[in-house]
Amino acid sequence: MRRTIVAAVLALLAAVAVVPATSAPSQAATTGFRDVTNHYQFYREISWLTEKGITTGYAGNWFRPEWEVSREAFAAFLYRLAGRPGVSMSSRSPFKDVPKSHQFYKEIVWLDKQGITTGWSDGTFRPDQAIDRNAMAAFLYRYEGKPSFSPPSRSPFKDLNRSSKFYKEITWLRTTGITTGFADGTFRPYASTSRAATAAFLFRGFGSGSYKAPTYVAPRTPFKASEVLSVARSQVGYKEPSFRKNKYNDWIGGSSAWCQVYVGWVFEKAGYPGYVPREAYYDQDFNPPAGRSTFVGRLQSAGVLDWNVSLSDLDPGDVVLINWGTGQGVSHAAIVDRVSGNGAWFYEGNTTSGTGSSARGVFHRWRSLSVVDAVFTPQAYYDATH
Question: Closest Cα partner for 189 from 153, 135, 149, 144?
């Protein structure tokens, strides 16, 4: 019965209220990226990169912030940053591995004509190769017109010598504030550069300090339980290093009981931000600071909890609230994997293995239906709150 009602509500929403992420106003330029929420380290920089049209991301509402940037992609980024200028196309490609049919032929030709790249000594550009950090420094220095700059007598990075090929370009990058290097004092010139780091480089060099990132609006993406379960499964075996000190609480900046934090982490990493509450505190019974909302409280406000649970209500990817029968009420959250016998298998954080060990972590555990007090469908929570 619950499924029938939810399906009907979703159909109605789809017919009259759901606006595609791509139709969002310009103030919400990053709407649609499932993997770059407002909590992401470089959210502001990626918002700017998107708003300027320097990148459009990937199909399916993904930005892929940790993916490497190829030399051809960086050529496209710089060309778009320059405002997509007209290019006098050569009758012959400047590089033997870049045919005229290449996706970014115009951009790479422009890069060559501007003197931003010289390619390799064998006449290739190697478009598919990940651009390393020293090459990116050289490209940016040349893009700026090779400004007058006297490199320092002492290297600002312990892995960069004055005799290094791109010493001048890298130290210029450091002086301009485009890069700060790594916390250990290195620059790592031969390391590849992620899309997120590239966004940061470009924003620091060419963005505006007054730029304000838009309010993040999570995309409405058709919910696939398999994607959530894959992420949940990947965490099984993780052990909490010390009491309430773990990567999930670090993610949310908290130090409370973390079963619901694990659930929120899984959904966000799977690309479904906003499908479950992102809360550091489980319920009012766990004494959150005054004025703080809680995981259970937000579910109750959304009106999505089904308190009359049967085995047929437990679908993969659903989230349950568990009551241990101690008189405390619901006090645990878990993600449904599959029904089995008179209960179900769940993925759970802040629990034990059930084998007698007191070590807390992430486990795949079977629970009887008798301890499950409530269940909700993440898609229903998203639709009720957006």
Answer: 135
